[in-house]
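Dear colleagues,

For the upcoming journal club I promised to circulate an example of a predicted protein-ligand complex. I picked one with zinc ion because it came up in last month's discussion. The inputs are reproduced below in full, followed by the predicted structure.
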Amino acid sequence: MKQGQSAVAWKPKEPLKIETVQVAPPKAHEVRIKIVYTAVCHTDGYTLSGEDPEGIFPVILGHEGGGVVESIGDGVTNVQPGDHVIPLYTPQCGECKFCKSPKTNLCSKIRSFQGKGVMPDGTSRFMCKGHSLFHFMGCSTFSEYTVVADISVVKVENKAPLDKVCLLGCGVSTGYGAALNTAKVEKNSTCAIWGLGAVGLAVAMGCKAAGASRIIGIDINEGKFEIGNKFGCTECINPKMYNKPIEEVLVEITDGGLDYTFECIGNVKAMRAALEACHKGWGTSVIVGVAGAGQEISTRPFQLVTGRVWKGCAFGGWKSRDSVPKLVEKYLNGDLILDDFITHSLTLEEVNDALQLMHNGKSIRSVLQVCTL
Ligand SMILES: NC(=O)C1=CN([C@@H]2O[C@H](COP(=O)(O)OP(=O)(O)OC[C@H]3O[C@@H](n4cnc5c(N)ncnc54)[C@H](OP(=O)(O)O)[C@@H]3O)[C@@H](O)[C@H]2O)C=CC1
Ligand SMILES: N[C@@H](CCC(=O)N[C@@H](CSC=O)C(=O)NCC(=O)O)C(=O)O
Ligand SMILES: [Zn+2]
Ligand SMILES: [Zn+2]
């Protein structure tokens, strides 16, 4: 048993509490990790808000982490103690029908357990004050020690700074992959991105890398425009500054609509606007944002009949264990930005401040130091 500090979400909507948590040893095909850094993603705040249909409490949130393997269970061959690793909320078993298909990255091997907040044997490794705590997205990185399935973790080069590459555990990989893998943005194409948080900015980075000629950032927080331009937006607009729907504005200023649009907020009205801003005949809209419980998308079917395509992705469509080390390498070679996403460097004790900064639109990513290497 290992004992360490974790930020525990005892109930929805309540501040997280730093608690001493007992973390059981890894069972077969499990890995216990000492988390060194974790970032805070909008999805952590979403689940804490009580809007996640799969939200379950008490739980240790966090899924954008970097750490060092502390111990491994029987049968683990892909990592060993001392390895630097990134936990993966989208695992890759390599054996299920999803993993075998080149069409998706959604491994199904342990998804049902992950959604129930337990390890693949149906139990938790976390205990606090006599209570069992649930795992979150198969990662639970707001914790000094965590246990994950071996298919949910990948080794990265020791020289990769964990306070930066932890961002590849979710937001940056997601946005970058949404542009490159899901939309497959082409050279000289036109793109628009709703929501200039880390995910939307990473989409912009992907669109720029693909050679898009016009990348329009759309956000109600004009404080995000400067960083939007830095990540490749050729212009940024605030939908509230127009007296007609933003999709109409966009269709007008782009000669009939965009080639690719991306929703990176989790707002179903923005999802509709993003679809309807697409060019007739070929425009593709990618849903990346996660909408709250009970919300549904709608549009006139005519929008699809006339050739627009509506799709979405999780973790940017990356097959996780194959791709994350390559993204790390890209970062180390200077071909992928990570540092500029980090607006705040805090500690695990300051996790509630990090959540507040996110909700107030003041941060892109806060990276929390959980312990020292
Ligand atoms: N599909 C997937 O695999 C993944 C999905 N997600 C989801 O992606 C979304 C974005 O995540 P993240 O970048 O971390 O979130 P952030 O909160 O950092 O960014 C969202 C941005 O959208 C802006 N915004 C809010 N409402 C509107 C609106 N009506 N119109 C235009 N802009 C708006 C926010 O403004 P303000 O600054 O005022 O808040 C903020 O700048 C979330 O829904 C998250 O859950 C995240 C990771 C993976
Ligand atoms: N639990 C929610 C859905 C949440 C969701 O869509 N999560 C994304 C990742 S968001 C990361 O920050 C995801 O990977 N989805 C695919 C999956 O299999 O979960 C709900 O029940 O609506
Ligand atoms: Zn996330
Ligand atoms: Zn699989």
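Two points we might discuss: Residues 2-169+338-369 form a domain with the Quinone Oxidoreductase; Chain A, domain 1 fold (CATH 3.90.180.10). Residues 171-183 form the longest helix (13 residues).

See you all on Thursday,
B. R.
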